[in-house]
């Protein structure tokens, strides 16, 4: 999964050095913590909502490490093509399952449609990510899903999000280089800075989105 929670979008300037600063409303109340910029946008920034910050603070104040839960799946929106093929109108399609991660251990399969987490409906990949990332690794959640037209419930012991590869194109202002192709001499290159585009591996989700055949 790409993101880890819902963000507040803001046009307040976020530049190198002020990530981690507070986002204030007109009453001077802290409503979020400035976190990221959109590298290909014009002054588009994102802040972690204060409710999420409060949950993390409880872990920090208790001395516990912040450990976000992870399923270990790649997902795709349940668009009209998937709805017709799978016979489901609401949920999130599992486009791939990471080997050795929580979902595989619990029996989640490719092309399952996840419809709920602990009874809470999910209708988009972002909603699924938000629901799972609010749980700690090691917690057990109940996934509602549809497989071959049949509704199922699976108990999943969540893994640790730190075990997942970071993904996504949003750029933290103090971590603009997340690693990339090697330039001659072993120096890491940043495709977006150098050439104006980014790349990602071809997987079942984007194969479906761009209608690329398996071969």
Q: How would you describe this structure to a colleague?
A:
The protein is of the alpha+beta class. It is 21% helix and 27% strand. It has 6 helices and 13 strands. The protein has helices at residues 50-62, 80-86, 102-106, 125-133, 191-195, 204-210; strands spanning 8-10, 22-24, 30-37, 45-49, 69-70, 73-77, 92-97, 113-117, 120-121, 140-147, 150-157, 159-160, 171-172. The strands form 3 sheets. Strands 6, 7, 8, 9, 10 and 11 form a 6-stranded antiparallel beta sheet that branches. Strands 1, 2, 3, 4 and 13 form a 5-stranded antiparallel beta sheet that branches. It has a two-stranded antiparallel ribbon with strand order 5-12. A hairpin with a 7-residue loop joins strand 3 and strand 4. The longest helix is centred in the N-terminal third of the chain and has 13 residues, at 50-62. Residues 166-188 have low confidence and may be disordered.
